[in-house]
Amino acid sequence: MIEQIAVRVVHGPAPARPLAPRSRTARMLAAVGAFLHDHGRAIRTAQWVVVLVYLALMILPLVAPLPDRHARILNHVTLFAQFMFWGIWWPFVLLSMVLFGRIWCGVLCPEGALSEFASRHGRGGAIPKWMRWGGWPFVAFAGTTIYGQLVSVYQYPGAVLVVLGGSTVAAMVVGYLYGRDKRVWCKYLCPVNGVFNLLSRLAPVHMKVDAAAWVASPRVPGVNCAPLVPLRHMVGASDCHVCGRCEGYRGAITLSPRSPTEEVVTHGHGHGTAWYSALIAFGMLGLAMGAFHWTASPWFVAAKIGAAQWLAEHDIAWLFRDDIPWFILTHYPDQNDVFNWLDGTLILGYILATAAVMGGAIWLAVAAGARFLGKGWMGARFHHLMQALIPIGGCGLFIGLSASTVTLLRAEGLRMGWVGGTRIAMLAGATLWSLWLAWRISGRHVQSVPARIAAVAGVAAALALVDYAWALMFWIW
Ligand code: SF4
């Protein structure tokens, strides 16, 4: 219903009347919001520049030879693109979600821009029911993460083309088919939509809606909110792409500061779902951990040796075959980098097993804590408490992805001795932030201090497990 209404509205008019923000920060943010509102054309131009850069980083490495050991970031386009995509782009886009909300999505994301462009000139169909399924944020994230590992997306241009390019083509097809001037792909199917949604809940800025001002203002033409946010009832930053189009709308909406705990603590009770809890526990903290871990894990090596011996003893040869296309499993004989069926099976198994063990243990620990938040079991309380783990989940994705940055910079000869300490500081900070959120969340449900401590203890157990898993990867193995 909301989407059907939103499909009919047009780009927004000028603000109905100026808002009167109080603090200096509020005035500054309102000015940023007004700038975004007034410079839609410039933003669209910037989006096309980013689209060109994105396409160049994806396509130019395809026509270059793969880098040898003498290649450097500044003299080889493939290494340069690898550094830009995985060393800079992804880690810092994730960080931007926590700092500024989803402004990346609304202002710079090439995939969102292309999807909206296709939607502007497309069929404008109604959004199908299957697309609204709540499990897509988890399934799309999990599928892309696993597939990316199997084809070594961090290393090879062909794999980048299939993973990122495939996602972009899908975004354009969905845009062409559904909605008018909308970002249906971004709202429902984008593989990182769920993670961005969760991380932006921590942002200290959001588009604030003044309900009283809304009601008091006269009716004006609607605003084209591309990601289909129900403006009047917008709470928090998780769905909003901060494009600025609704800044000043009905004198009721403006970009505003807020406490980084506000959305999770105050509004998180009604905003958790089982799929988002699964994305935190099994996705960001489980599956992603498995994907970062397997290349460094002695357990993976032991499993591979054991499985290979067992297969040889039982005369099972087909699992050692490696004549597999590169878009199914990594296949670059010139680089001595070839996966056989056994490798593929073990990588998949390792990632899924890590997701099951980590996710299962985290789920149980948080569930144990949630039991103390009130009488009887209530899923909504559990999903609320689970959101306390968003900081450690985001921190893990950042330090996991930036491990590529560090490796590439080390290969350039840069001294990276400070990295270990920085990682410890980031993990410690995220752990404390998660504990603080757990404490604040518990206070929304119970007043008893022992009950609150017990609830926080459940989250602390989950955090201990996550920190131990990172310690294994960076300091123990
Ligand atoms: S609510 Fe919609 S229109 Fe308003 S800033 Fe967010 S994405 Fe843009």
Write a short abstract of this structure.
By secondary structure, the chain is mostly helical.
Task: For the structure shown, list the relevant keywords.
disordered N terminus, globular, single chain, two-stranded antiparallel ribbon, 19 helices, 477 residues, mainly alpha, binds iron/sulfur cluster, 4 strands
Describe the structure.
The protein is an all-alpha fold. It is 62% helix and 3% strand. It is built from 19 helices and four strands. The strands form two sheets. Strands 1-2 form a two-stranded antiparallel sheet. Strands 3-4 form a two-stranded antiparallel ribbon. Strand 3 (331-332) and strand 4 (337-338) form a beta hairpin. Helix 12 packs across helix 18 and helix 18 (419-445) packs antiparallel against helix 19 (449-476). The chain is globular. Residues 1-18 have low confidence and may be disordered. Residues 106, 207, 223, 225, 227, 229, 231, 234, 240-246 line the site of iron/sulfur cluster (SF4).
List the helices and strands and how they pair.
Layout: H1 2-8, H2 24-38, H3 40-59, H4 77-100, H5 103-108, H6 110-120, H7 136-150, H8 157-177, H9 184-188, H10 193-199, E1 205-209, H11 211-216, E2 253-257, H12 262-271, H13 274-293, H14 298-313, E3 331-332, E4 337-338, H15 341-370, H16 379-386, H17 390-411, H18 419-445, H19 449-476
Antiparallel strand pairs: 1-2, 3-4
The site of iron/sulfur cluster has 15 residues, from loops.
What is the overall pLDDT average?
93
The strand line-up of the biggest sheet is 1-2
Helix content: 55-70%
How far apart the termini lie comes to: 52 Å
Instruction: Identify the quaternary structure here.
Output: single chain
Q: Could you say which structural class the secondary elements and strand pairing correspond to?
A: mainly alpha
Beta-strand fraction estimate:
under 5%
What are the distinct ligands in this entry? iron/sulfur cluster
Total number of beta strands = 4
The main pleated sheet reads as:
2 strands, antiparallel
* Number of discrete helical segments: 19
Unreliable residue runs: 1-18
**3D shape:** globular
Write the element-wise H/E pattern from the N-terminal end onward: HHHHHHHHHHEHEHHHEEHHHHH
Q: Rg, please?
A: 23 Å
